[in-house]
Amino acid sequence: xxxxxxxxxxxGNWKMHGLSSDLAEIAVIAAASKRLPxxxxxxxxxxxxxxxxxxxxxxxxxxxxxxxxxxxxxxTGNVSARMLxxxxxxxxxxxxxxxxxxxxxxxxxxxxxxxxxxxxxxAVILCVGEPLEIREAGAAVQxxxxxxxxxxxxxxxxxxxxxxxxxxxxxxxxxxxxxGEEIAAMHAAIRKHIDDHYSDAGAAVRILxxxxxxxxxxxxxxxIADVDGALVGGASLKATDFLPIVEAAxxx
Length: 252
Ligand code: PEP
What we know:
Elements: E1 9-13, H1 23-34, E2 40-44, H2 47-56, E3 61-64, H3 81-87, E4 91-94, H4 97-102, H5 107-120, E5 123-128, H6 132-136, H7 140-151, E6 162-166, H8 180-198, E7 206-210, H9 218-222, E8 229-232, H10 239-250
Parallel strand pairs: 1-2, 1-8, 2-3, 3-4, 4-5, 5-6, 6-7, 7-8
Helix pairs in contact: 1-10, 5-7, 7-8
Bound molecules: phosphoenolpyruvate (PEP).
Phosphoenolpyruvate is lined by residues 13, 167, 172-173, 210-213, 231-235.
């Protein structure tokens, strides 16, 4: 997955949805995305679907949703970065809040996953985001910056692209989204943190917003400064829901 300097990226996260009968939906999304070259589009599908999806839509970016931090070994049930690559993936999500929560993934583990994936040649979308009580306590920015401190890969030199997805946990799958001001303030803080962390190399790191993005709210979200795209869950499952989001990104 190549990146022009912060061209918009719209990535779908299919989570634990998707069977071979859904490959036709991926084909529709891939064909329509090809007609919108101003935006990068990707679908992160269940690991067992990666190979068939990648074969079905050559040239379209198919990704995984997680990788193990080790390159190989005695890790029953896990999937390695090289396995994803071998199956045809070009990117992976790491540190999604559903994994941080259900699998107790620490920042340190997320960093190790990101570093292994990048070293193996996968682009990475690294997720961060605060729970509602932290937002209500006024500590969202400091919490997300601490997550970044703990989980950003140490170096990007010679690696595939990294994107950071800001996903407030309380906005995922709920239909609620932060205000435009809240998104702008968070993305500006993340941008500064990334620029400080990586100096010049940080300019290529895209910052995606994720959490209840839909065709109806995408145009206003993409108009916010420092929003370089979106990570989309529920609305990525159907081409009719996902493509309006891709079109909104292409229109910026
Ligand atoms: C997600 O889980 O990454 C996500 C953004 O979900 P949704 O779009 O359904 O809120």
